[in-house]
Amino acid sequence: MSDRVKTAVQPTRAQDYPEWYQQVVRASDLAESSPVRGCMVVKPWGCALWENMRTALDAMFRETGHSNAYFPLFIPLSFLRKEAEHVEGFAKECAVVTHHRLEQNSDGVLVPAGELEEPLVVRPTSETIIGATYAKWVQSYRDLPILINQWANVVRWEMRPRIFLRTTEFLWQEGHTVHETSEEAWEETIRILDIYRRFAEQYMAMPVLTGEKTARERFPGAVNTFCIEAMMQDRKALQAGTSHFLGQNFARAADISFQTRSGGKEHAWTTSWGVSTRLIGGLIMVHGDDNGIIVPPRLAPDHVVILPIVRAEKDRESVMSYCRELADGLRSRDYHGSPVRAIVDNRDKNAGEMGWEWIKKGIPVRLEVGPRDIGKNAVFVGRRDRDPKERYSEDRDTFLAGVTELLDEIQSGLYERAGAYLAANTSAIDDWNEFQEFFTPQDTVKPEIHGGFALSHWCGGAECEEKINQELSVSIRCIPRERENDEGGSCIVCAGRSPQRVVFAKAY
Fold first, then answer.
1. Rounded to an integer, what distance in angstroms lies between the CA atom of residue 283 and that of residue 278?
2. CA-CA distance, 239 to 454, in Å (whole number)?
3. pLDDT tens digits, residue range 227-280?
4. Which of 38, 188, 242, 417 fits 168 for a cystine, CB–CB 3.0-4.6 Å?
5. How many Cβ atoms are within 10 Å of 377's Cβ, its own excluded?
6. How far, in Å, CA of 239 to CA of 284, rounded?
7. Interatomic CA distance for residues 239 and 370, integer angstroms
8. What does the pLDDT read at residue 210?
9. Which parts of 262-315 fold into alpha helices (H)?
10. Span 312-366, pLDDT tens digits
11. Phi/psi class of residue 154: alpha, beta or left (left: φ > 0; alpha: ψ in -120 to 50)?
């Protein structure tokens, strides 16, 4: 890399944050746009990152009694029509299949043929198709609870797509559960919210706020929607996961009913919940810098890359042998129940060029090994959470003995850094003029840069919520579950009585 170029990614975050994000996705080799508008090709590094997220979450779901299943991609239109609020919420995003084959017309051009008796909606979410299945499975209280999750893809027709954050097709998990009582369904809703919070904080090193959505922001058809919200480095909020208490709404629509313990008949209580590949976008924007992505070790596809430095052919075999032994030694170490993932990059490329490729991809630790290092029984260490120019020599055996502690140090350091940024850009605001100024861009050329999260009072009125959204493009991200001794106050808009502060922010 030229000495005149200070960063691997151009433009920098300060110069153009949205374009910086796109360039980081490209530079880190996570994904790229596909020939289908709004869709993405997830490349091996991005796919491995998603698979690690999936593995961690799947284990957390299984620990709480959930099993995986799979349900159809296509949903009869009549199923969505059964739940009016639900279909209204997704109507503008639905892709619809109306024909089942192609035929050549008189001009030899392929055209749709074989019109379906009933249109099929390509899965935007699965409450209705899963509800129809559960209606067959549930007859008695003895059949409950049903605790099922599925890993799948969904399609929501996006007008302004952005890789990972909003794409027409994306990968996700969606849980759907059925319960005998309202209390059990409520407990499930909160249990999953806590799983999402722990995953974000312990694996993604991403601090989040948890709370309930307002009626305006609620999942279509839900009684209550809870969420985790994270702050990105442009100080916008990212809704990173949601857990919905559906009450009996979807059970009534799908007729999920059961014989009660007293012999009567009652509709079941249901929940649904999900996270998606949007988490990768969140990880980029929480931890990325002007040299690319920084991947927290607990999710990294690989933990350590070993870069052989071979300048003379006579040294090749000794350097490669040393590197292979080093990799084997690393793989023998346990890191949170799995071997340390170490690779030797022996491509026929300049070592400096390879090093910058790995920096941009965010691998936690880089090791350079040349003849001098072998002579000292040492390794030359670079940490991705620090300046790429900051490298140091360490005894090989000492490094091997402490590698898991080093990875944990990087993991916790990323979380602490993100937490400090969240705290520094979160303010309690009680004055309307100060509130407006807080959300006024500091630079008219970069309107995404503003104050951050405002903790302000809200009366609960839809008119006040709408006023803020219309005038400032700011929404209530959540009503925090923990009030932190908040005794109430006056609404930031109308000065009416407010029971507690809520979180206001601009959002993705």
1. 9
2. 16
3. 999 999 999 999 999 999 999 999 999 999 999 999 999 999 999 999 999 999
4. 38
5. 11
6. 14
7. 46
8. 98
9. 278-287
10. 899 999 999 999 999 999 999 999 999 999 999 999 888 889 999 999 999 999 9
11. beta
CATH class, 426-505 region? alpha beta
Concatenating the DSSP letter of every residue in 307-360 gives EE--SSGGGHHHHHHHHHHHHHHHHTSEETTEE--EEE---SS-HHHHHHHHHH
Q: What confidence tier does 80 reach under pLDDT thresholds 50, 70, 90?
A: confident
Residue whose pair of structure tokens reads 């806590």 in the numeric block: 194
CATH superfamily, region 30-76+124-276: Bira Bifunctional Protein; Domain 2 (3.30.930.10)
- Give the CA angle between residues 495, 216, 228 to the nearest 5°: 95
Tokens of 502: 């809520």
The structural architecture, per CATH, of the domain 304-422 is 3-Layer(aba) Sandwich (3.40)
Give dist(CA 86, CA 223) in Å, integer: 12
Alpha helix stretches (DSSP H) within 376-442 = 396-424, 432-438
Calpha distance 36→229 (Å, rounded): 30
How do residues 88-110 score in pLDDT, each as one tens digit? 778 889 999 999 999 999 999 99
**Which of 490, 458, 500, 489 lies closest to 216, judged by CA?**
458
Give the model's pLDDT for residue 445.
56
CB 219 within 8 A of CB 410: no
- CB contact at 8 A, 179 and 270: yes
Measuring CA to CA, how many Å separate 2 from each of 8, 84, 291? 10, 59, 14
Q: Where are the domains of the chain?
A: 30-76+124-276, 304-422, 426-505
Q: Which two tokens stand for residue 147?
A: 């605790």
Q: CA 445, 25, 296, 403 torsion: positive or negative? A: negative
C-alpha span between 160 and 38 (Å, rounded): 8
* Whole-number CA gyration radius for the chain: 26
Peptide bond into 18 cis (omega under 30): no
Q: In degrees rounded to 5, what are phi and psi of residue 372?
A: -65, -40
Reported residue count of the chain is 508
Residue listed under structure tokens 């430095």: 309
Q: For residue 283, report the phi and psi dihedrals to the nearest 5 degrees.
A: -60, -40
pLDDT tens digits along 268-287: 999 999 999 999 999 999 99
Q: Is 80 exposed, middle or buried (0-12, 13-18, 19+ CB in 10 A)?
A: buried
Instruction: Establish whether the linkage from the previous residue to 72 is cis, with ω within 30° of 0.
Output: no
85: tokens are: 């609020």
Q: Is 67 exposed, middle or buried (0-12, 13-18, 19+ CB in 10 A)?
A: exposed
